[in-house]
Design a protein that fits this description.
The chain has 13 helices and 19 strands. The chain has 431 residues and is of the alpha/beta class. The chain is globular. Helix 7 packs parallel to helix 8 and helix 9 runs parallel beside helix 11. It folds into 4 domains: 121 residues, Rossmann fold, CATH 3.40.50; 137 residues, Transcription Regulator spoIIAA, CATH 3.30.750.210; 86 residues, Transcription Regulator spoIIAA (2-Layer Sandwich); 41 residues. 42% of the residues are buried. Strand 3, helix 2 and strand 4 form a beta-alpha-beta unit. The strands form 5 sheets. Strands 2-1-3-4-5-6 form a 6-stranded parallel beta sheet, with helices on both faces. A 4-stranded mixed beta sheet has the order 7-8-11-12. Strands 18-17-16-19 form a 4-stranded antiparallel beta sheet, with no helix packed on it.
């Protein structure tokens, strides 16, 4: 009888794509996949460490596994595992900790451990992590998250990602196209391009100097990908989305290209983090508010219907009530569609953790709530502006209590009575 494995993801879409790839690696090694709430022989938790919550959640999941399947092997990988391997190894029930360089060697490591041994740590200095491993998620056939870039060379004062994932490195365009063709052959309609710093695409497998490729070259090539002869659907990928791109890296060329593309959707996610130039400086971001305003203005001029999501951090050290009001007022007037709001969380070994004055937790939480309310209003306004329009909706293939969901090209969520003919298909829909 085959061994069973259950996997769980904490954190970003990049993590989801990597967890999916880890699952396929283990299936190829003879494991059978189980749902995480089922009993399995091995549990894998792919962690995030952007906030303190992710650390706590990891500990809680390990305790849950201990109660449910005390004999199961527990493997922790991901950013938290790279940053604090010794801390994780001391959690009761953890058997194996895999750092950034070792996570894709999971099958080999599992063969070398037994329950009851002391936790094994397989990690190295992040400076030594210099390879790129492509990965993608396939939960159902509708939409796939494809990792094309990893690591980051930026040094934002609040962020542990460079310490957790290493220097910026990318896949090649030719490899990416081969992966896209293989994904298309499975009937997938939409690919979301993901990376830690996606706009920095072009640095080679081992990072370092820029090579001859860049993100603009990549999207131009992807737009031209035709279906492979063995593609049963025959149309190749019909939709691409860009998951998140820094405001200083989204060029005029990229914006203009997306505005004219039939396959790249009018949808951007562009981190801002603060609407105050003072706070942006303390965060060591590589732009000022003026540049951000300019980028949003250009997108909306070329694509008035475009959906724009924004990342914001509240409660950063030194953020006064006036600074927060400046951010709120700026976002309120900005022509955007929704916000992802993060409450600032102190992370060890970052510059921000030493900064003063510290914003009290209750004030951070209040500011988070204020911006989440604004986000809801923004999304309602954006949706209402398109009522009466007919747009293309790609419906997911899941039946949820007689209903199904899908997204328009510009990321408006549509819920409709379940119709199996619409599964994984693009439907003209009047909003």
């Amino acid at each position: 009888m085959n061994k069973t494995v259950a996997l769980h993801t904490l954190g970003c879409k990049l993590n989801f794509s990597e967890t999916s790839s880890l699952g396929r690696l283990l299936e190829n090694d003879g494991f059978e996949k189980r749902e995480f709430d089922e009993v399995a022989d091995v549990y894998v938790i792919n962690t995030c460490s952007v906030t303190d919550n992710a650390d706590k959640e990891c500990r809680m999941l390990v305790r849950r596994i201990q109660r449910k399947a005390p004999e199961a092997l527990v493997v922790i990988t991901g950013c938290y595992a790279q940053l604090k391997p010794k801390e994780i190894a001391e959690i009761p029930g953890v058997d194996l900790v895999l750092g950034a360089a070792e996570k894709f060697n999971i099958a080999a490591h599992l063969k070398e451990i037994s329950k009851g041994d002391s936790a094994k740590i397989c990690s190295c200095d992040i400076e030594d992590v210099n390879e790129f491993t492509a990965s993608h998620s396939i939960n159902d056939r509708t939409r796939v998250f494809l990792k094309v870039q990893d690591g980051c060379d930026y040094n934002c004062s609040f962020c542990t990602i460079p310490m957790a994932r290493g220097k910026s490195r990318s896949d090649s365009i030719s490899n990416t196209i081969a992966n896209v063709e293989a994904i298309a052959a499975q009937g997938v309609k939409e690919i979301v391009l993901t990376g830690i710093n996606l706009g920095d695409f072009g640095k080679g497998f081992a990072g370092g100097k820029k090579n001859e490729e860049n993100f603009f070259d990549l999207i131009k090539e992807l737009d031209e990908v035709k279906a492979r002869p063995d593609d049963p659907v025959g149309r190749g990928i019909e939709r691409y989305r860009i998951s998140s791109i820094e405001p200083n890296l989204i060029t005029n060329d990229i914006i203009e290209f997306v505005s004219n593309s039939k396959k790249f959707m009018p949808h951007f996610h562009i981190p801002l983090q603060s609407g105050s130039d003072k706070i942006l400086g303390l965060m060591r971001r590589r732009y000022k508010r003026e540049l951000y305003t300019e980028r949003i203005g250009l997108i909306k001029t070329m694509m008035p219907h475009c959906c724009i999501g924004v990342d914001v951090i509240v409660g950063f050290p030194g953020e006064t009530d006036e600074d927060f009001k400046e951010t709120f007022d700026y976002l309120h007037q900005l022509d955007i569609s929704y916000l992802h709001v993060f409450t600032y969380s102190e992370r060890a070994n970052t510059l921000a953790a030493t900064m003063k004055p510290v914003v009290p937790i209750h004030i951070r939480n209040e500011r988070n709530k204020t911006l989440r309310n604004l986000s809801y209003q923004k999304m309602q306004y954006f949706t209402n502006a398109h009522i009466g329009e007919t747009r293309k909706v790609l419906f997911e293939s899941k039946n949820k209590n007689g209903m199904m969901e899908g997204y328009t090209d510009n990321y408006i969520k549509i819920t409709a009575p379940y119709n199996h003919l619409w599964e994984n298909n693009i439907v003209e829909w009047k909003i």
